[in-house]
Amino acid sequence: MERELWEQLYLLVVRLDKGWSNAIYRDCEVLAVYLWAVVHDRPTSWACDHRNWRGPPPRLPSQSTMSRRLRRLRLQDLLSAVEAELGGDPQRWWVQRIDGKPLPVGTHTKDRSAKLGPAGHGFAKGYKLHAIWGGGPLPSVWQVEPMNAGEASVARELVNRLPGEGYIVGDKQYDSNALHEVARRRGFQLIAPQQREGKALGHRRHSQSRLRSLELLRKPFGKALFHDRDQIERDYGGLTSFAAGLAPLPSWVRRPHRVRLWVQIKLLINAIRILNKNLPPMLAPA
Fold it and tell me: Contacts by 169-174 with C-beta closer than 8 Å and gap 24+?
């Protein structure tokens, strides 16, 4: 299964890599090696060894070349093009869900960017994947932040990048006047239950969008929308429940740029898996 996912993602990367540079290796060749490492949950150095390839491997850069090239903007532009190809247009979803996925690391990690923050019913050190997910194989927008970053604060950044209009559904962590206002200005109605259920709102001024959210949640339509929020839990469940999926961060994935790149490739692998399930002829290897 891992090789099939790699082959299909590799063919897509090669097709979308339109640029040549003076470098010895093309961006698609560098990505091919990194994809091989991620799909097998191994470090980049493992993929740079020809003994760890089944069949003739592509040209293999050195570990130092991989480390340098993986941080270049050109390669990130190529990955963004792959995301756009697999995810499609997020504007077609009129209901989207927002939530975070903890990415814990070891308590004694030397990664200074990995912070202690809420994770599930407790606390952990690490990072968190924040995403707004429509009905596609990829999130509409996403980003990785340290574990202690506030859900509502990161959500404001995500909503500002979210195209289209409609409804965004989240849990009570997203019940924030500031977030409601950002969503309203972007053309979205945020649906989130009151943080302190049963408590009066007090005498402070509240966003009209927040008041409408609380009113909708008392009606059948709003209740149905909030019930649909469970879909993002299934999306995260699917992302983590197969052999090449997003497992807990391995020991060699530390520092923000490495964590983000690792998560991005896992999201792309999962998207290929979903599309294979729904549209197998379209992604079959040539």
Answer: 169/95, 169/96, 169/97, 169/98, 169/225, 169/226, 169/228, 169/229, 170/97, 170/98, 170/99, 170/229, 171/99, 171/229, 172/197, 174/98
